[in-house]
Amino acid sequence: MKQITFTQLIVLSVFTRVGFFIFGLYQDAYLLVKYTDIDYLVFSDAARYVANRISPYMRETYRYTPFLAWLLVPNSWDGIWYNFGKLVFMLSDIITGAIILSLLKTIFSGKNISQNKILLFSSLWLLNPMVITISTRGSSESILTVLIMSSAYFLLGKQNYFLSALFMGAAIHLKLYPIIYLASVFIFLSDKGPLFFKVPFICNVNKHNLLYAAVTLCVTAVLNLIMYQIYGYEFLENAFLYHFKRLDHRHNFSVYNIVLYYISTIGAQSSLKGIIFPLEKLAFVPQFFISIVAIPIVFAKKDLMSCFFLQTFAFVTFNKVITSQYFIWYIIFIPHILARLSHAERWRRHRGLLNLLLWLLSQSCWLYFAYQLEFQGRSTFDKGLIYSSFFFFLSNCKIIGNLIEDISSCIFP
């Protein structure tokens, strides 16, 4: 059987995205439910503001770095330029896939994984309908994935810690959550150079991990300072602080959805709010402990990419707000996980398929009740949506446990 080549895979991924994009134009023009994501309208409005030298935060619900609005200024021009941002996101998708493939080749070189399998695993990003749909609808997550995978590539593929830190700092500026990877990289680099001092039970401190942390944080700080100098406190409030206190209860898969719903409906002086509000704030405790402390300590030195995946999956699972775009955050690591598990026992590979089915089933249950609520006007919040959120959460917890066992069996002697 003739094997597909890298060029053929890229060409196929380009045509697939173009097909989704064209269908999206048709759906927006003729169907009741629009294809384009509401966030894309927000981006475009913000781009129009900055093109006219007005703050992008004049656009209500713009909660991103102004750099994104600057990048999408062509969206504010007439005609087909409105779709400029979607093309940028689609291109970023493809670049991410190319980096994934290159990194897989580097990490698994000489480990009895064929070129055909490497291409197959990479296609799980490049030809993934969820990934393609999210970028062609106008979500900006693919810009973030380029930065994260570029950081991983220079760290693991080129051992260029400085460039890796530059990309990581830019990623943290774009969205705050990649800062969870800094703990893992710090531990990963702890054996890569002469010891300065030792942190008991965690890692050694040397020039490499100190430099990496310093460069990452400096890049983030400089970018934030530039934006603060231009836009002031409204930049900090909308790009960062808002995400610590957001109370989105619509389109939210999270198990905390019910808490956020009641916070949004009860009065500010209600005695219930005094009970619920601390519970909502405590949501960060298990999330941070698992994703920033426990997982990096156990996995960072053994397999950094698997560590990134587990961190991200746990972070999203325990987050107060979960939307479909958040799944992209850990899907970028799925090709590596499958390559790592490709030589696992057969029953573990079968369990991986069951994990996928469980994830899809729990997500589908939630989407069914959400559709009934949003589009059919039926009251399903108390009758189904809450239970499906718990089902999704527990399913993800089970998947995390299974993956920790399976990955450990492959990377620990």
From TrEMBL:
One function term, GO molecular function aspect: alpha-1,4-mannosyltransferase activity
Localization annotation: Endoplasmic reticulum membrane
Enzyme class: transferase
InterPro entries, A to Z: PIG-M
Domain of life from the UniProt record: Eukaryota
TM regions (residue ranges): 7-26, 80-104, 125-155, 161-189, 210-231, 251-270, 282-300, 312-332, 353-373, 385-404
GO biological process: GPI anchor biosynthetic process
Keyword presence, Transferase: yes
Keyword match Glycosyltransferase: yes
EC number: 2.4.1.-
Keywords: Endoplasmic reticulum, Glycosyltransferase, GPI-anchor biosynthesis, Membrane, Transferase, Transmembrane, Transmembrane helix
Pathway: Glycolipid biosynthesis; glycosylphosphatidylinositol-anchor biosynthesis
Membrane topology annotation: Multi-pass membrane protein
GO CC annotations, alphabetized: endoplasmic reticulum membrane; glycosylphosphatidylinositol-mannosyltransferase I complex
Family of the protein in this entry: Belongs to the PIGM family.
UniProt function note: Mannosyltransferase involved in glycosylphosphatidylinositol-anchor biosynthesis. Transfers the first alpha-1,4-mannose to GlcN-acyl-PI during GPI precursor assembly. Required for cell wall integrity.
Name of this protein: GPI mannosyltransferase 1
Gene source species: Pichia sorbitophila (strain ATCC MYA-4447 / BCRC 22081 / CBS 7064 / NBRC 10061 / NRRL Y-12695)
Gene behind this protein: Piso0_002517
